[in-house]
Specification:
Layout lengths: L7 E4 L2 H12 L4 E4 L4 E6 L3 H11 L8 E3 L3 H5 L6 H10 L4 E6 L16 E5 L4 H10 L3 E2 L14 H8 L5 E4 L10 E4 L5 E4 L5 H8 L8 H5 L20 E2 L9 E5 L14 E3 L6 H16 L5 E4 L8 H12 L3
Parallel strand pairs: 1-8, 2-8, 4-6, 5-9, 11-14, 12-13, 12-14
Antiparallel strand pairs: 2-3, 3-7, 4-7, 5-6, 9-10
Helix pairs in contact: 1-5, 2-9, 4-7
The structure holds threonylcarbamoyladenylate and magnesium ion.
Length: 329
């Protein structure tokens, strides 16, 4: 765990917006209002900042995050837009609508932010303060609701302070958020499907599309035994190569996903070794998790052997994802 931070609340003005931009650019965490709820922002392209964000929220697992941008042009650098997605963004952005789309090949968003998935959630918020901060940074900003995991989404700066005080650098206070519930999430991977009802009514979306939205199939919703609940509908990243957890020895034909300064015996015969964090730092390990798995998955090994990762702090979320990636399919 990192030392508590000195959190301060600043009334939204040019100075506090500039400070939030500097904070994000330096890899820090800044909470700010959007039209839906307060978001906890981090530079989406900085894996370590994203890892710190999960830690601050106390997320027991890495749920994929929404990348916030100022407009459709900026979103095109992150995701591929179908004709339907294009129509929705043209008609309803900026606003309380999140689109889940195929990730663009050159998408600069950190793998940890999308939890290793090939899809990405993007949204252009309409709130003037959110827009000033995202535009000022000039990069996508990931921003989950600014509450501790399992708590309700905050609609005032005081709610954010109560939940995240001492865990983030800065809270920009722009008063109560006008919409008060999270954005509506629509997946445009196939036929447009509603994943989470939210601040933008279904009717407005169906009008823009000129057709009805699909409901997620129970099969999708029940994948990994996830309950049929908003936020649980993203399937998990799974490498093709089988994983062997809590490895204490590397066998021939295996790659090694290491952790810490001391490698397990047999590591010299591994086809390839990647270390999540040589110095045993769980924030660094989280930032490397999905990208290292992807690289090792491409080595043609028969197994990816994984060294034990401690269970404290972000280790719980890292172990959760490793266990899912290792589960038989
Ligand atoms: O209104 C909002 O959307 C607020 C403000 C701050 O913008 N943000 C927000 O973020 O509600 P969060 O992280 O609390 O919720 C994002 C939801 C999660 O339930 C996550 O599972 C889903 O979006 N999500 C993100 N990426 C996804 C993906 N690739 N596929 C499916 N669901 C995804
Ligand atoms: Mg949330």
């Amino acid at each position: 765990m990192t030392a508590p931070l000195a959190t301060h609340i600043s009334k939204a003005d040019d100075a506090s917006i500039a400070e939030a931009v500097r904070c994000l650019a330096a890899g820090g965490l800044a909470a700010f209002p959007t039209e839906t709820v307060y978001g906890l922002g981090a530079d989406a392209t900085n894996g370590q900042a994203v890892a710190r964000l999960y830690e601050a929220k106390g997320r027991p697992a890495f749920n994929p995050l929404i990348a916030h941008v100022v407009d459709l042009a900026a979103a095109r650098a992150l995701a591929r837009f179908s004709a339907d997605a294009e129509r929705l963004a043209e008609a309803l952005w900026p606003g309380p609508l999140t689109l889940v789309l195929p990730k663009a090949a050159a998408c600069p968003v950190a793998d940890l932010a999308t939890a290793g998935l090939d899809s990405i959630a993007v949204r252009a918020p309409s709130h003037i303060i959110a827009r000033a901060i995202i535009g000022g940074l000039g990069k996508p900003v990931v921003a989950p609701s600014a509450n501790r995991s399992g708590h309700v989404s905050p609609t005032t700066a005081a709610h954010v302070l109560a939940d995240l005080g001492g865990r983030v650098e800065l809270i920009v206070d722009g008063g109560p958020t006008p919409v008060g519930v999270e954005s509506t999430i629509i997946a445009c991977l196939d036929e447009p499907t509603i994943l989470r009802p939210g601040g933008l009514p279904r009717e407005a979306i169906e009008r823009a599309l000129a057709k009805p939205l699909m409901q997620p199939s129970t099969e999708t919703a029940m994948a990994d035994n996830a309950p049929l609940a908003p936020g649980m509908l993203a399937s998990h990243y799974a490498p093709r190569t089988p994983l062997r957890l809590k490895t204490d020895m590397v066998a021939v034909g295996e790659c090694l996903l290491a952790f810490g300064p001391n490698l397990v015996p047999g590591s010299e015969r591994a086809m390839r070794v990647l270390n999540l964090s040589e110095r045993g730092d769980l924030i660094e390990a989280a930032a490397n998790l999905f990208s290292h798995l992807r690289v090792l998955d491409g080595e043609g090994a028969n197994t990816i052997a994984v060294m034990p990762v401690p269970h404290d702090g972000l280790g719980e979320a890292i172990n959760d994802r490793l266990a899912r990636a290792a589960a038989p399919r």
